[in-house]
Specification:
- The longest helix has 35 residues.
- The chain has one domain: MetI-like fold (Orthogonal Bundle), CATH 1.10.3720.10.
- The radius of gyration is 23 Å and the shape is globular.
- It is mainly α.
- Helices cover 75% and strands 0% of the residues.
- It has 14 helices and no strands.
């Protein structure tokens, strides 16, 4: 046996841990096939009624499209802002850089309920100025999500910048490159993977965000997590289990596809 390959004990431990983590997720699969109108294991007969409801009920489609729109827009804005901030900190190295980074990371530190209440009052105040960005609007949700997810993007991009050799920036500056040229042509190509990962993480965090969304939406901006929460809170709708199975399947397909693509490139 190769010294670089894990032993039987390590593989068995990994399998047990994976089963422990995945079994609660897999338990939702049979529940999604129940013919009952409440969450329960199917008893004797299986049904696709709740999967058909996902297609027949337009609320699910609207919430998915809204979540996609909010996730894409908020992740793009958060990634751009995080990249600009991280590049500024890395290139300028101000004296108060630690304080500035700490200030930007505050949404990660404070309790979510505090952030939710703060954003609620902010958006209700904006609603009095304009109906476009405010409480219970999709752009208001985007604004709130950007505040919540940008710190995570900042962390990933700062980590990527930590691995960049400053001598390439000094060399570019020595050849007369401007700040914009150094940022776009020298530094960004070296951290493009980190920026992409930051954007992906920001989208995932926006897609699944529910705590803040509950405070800043009512009846107009119903995202998929909020609609699922309403189903659990109001009537324990088994369609939630069907949605969960669909999301698990899509995530699994994406992960398997990424693994196959990585093996092909290797």
């Amino acid at each position: 046996m190769s010294a670089n390959r894990p032993g039987a004990a390590a593989l068995a431990t990994a399998a047990v841990v994976a089963a422990f983590l995945l079994l609660p997720l897999l338990a939702v699969v049979p529940i999604s096939f129940t013919p009952a109108r409440f969450l329960t294991m199917p008893k004797g007969s299986w049904s696709l009624i709740h999967y058909r409801e996902l297609i027949a009920n337009p609320d699910w489609g609207r919430s998915v499209l809204l979540s996609l729109r909010i996730g894409v827009v908020s992740s793009l804005i958060a990634t751009v802002l995080a990249t600009l901030f991280a590049l500024g900190i890395w290139m300028a190295r101000p004296r108060l850089s630690a304080l500035l980074v700490g200030f930007v990371l505050l949404p990660m530190i404070v309790p979510p309920i505090v952030s939710a209440m703060t954003l609620y009052f902010l958006l209700t105040g904006l609603s009095q100025l304009t109906g476009l960005v405010g409480y219970d609007t999709w752009l208001g949700v985007v604004l709130a999500h950007v505040v919540m997810i940008a710190p995570f993007a900042v962390v990933l991009i700062l980590v990527a910048l930590a691995g960049v050799d400053r001598r390439i920036d000094l060399a570019a500056r020595g050849f007369g490159a401007t700040v914009t040229q150094r940022a776009l042509r020298v530094i960004l190509p070296n951290i493009r993977f980190g920026v992409l990962m930051a954007g992906l993480l920001a989208f995932v965090l926006s897609w699944e965000e529910i705590g803040v969304t509950l405070f800043i939406t009512s009846v107009n901006a119903i995202t998929l997590p909020r609609l699922m929460w309403m189903g659990v809170h109001d009537n324990i709708d088994p369609a939630i289990a069907a949605v969960s199975v669909v999301l698990i399947a899509l995530t699994t397909i994406a992960l398997v596809g990424r693994m196959m693509l990585h093996r092909t490139q290797a």
